[in-house]
Amino acid sequence: MLQILAFPQIKPISVSYGLGIIDHDSEGRLLTVEFDKFYLICGYIPNSGDGLKRLDYRINEWDASLSKHVKCLVGLREIEACHSYW
């Protein structure tokens, strides 16, 4: 299982793990940290794998779920994102 973590110098309001979808969250790929003025979204984005065997999952499931998650936060605070694409 992959893990994401953050070491903020200021105390966050809240921290949430994953997207609330078992298929995505079992891989430990997303962390959303809420601060007074912004959200920090840290992600380890899944790649397509050898022979592009996970491309359909990546585009149709992961990307769509992440987009929905971000859209729920838009307008509440600024959003900062850090991620890794492999």
From TrEMBL:
This is Uncharacterized protein. One of its GO terms (biological process) is DNA repair. Gene3D superfamilies: Endonuclease/exonuclease/phosphatase (3.60.10.10). Its cofactor is Mg(2+). It comes from Zostera marina (Eelgrass). PANTHER family: AP ENDONUCLEASE, DNA-(APURINIC OR APYRIMIDINIC SITE) ENDONUCLEASE. The keyword Lipoprotein does not apply. GO terms for molecular function: hydrolase activity; metal ion binding; nuclease activity. Transmembrane segments: none annotated. Keywords: Hydrolase, Magnesium, Metal-binding. The keyword Magnesium applies.
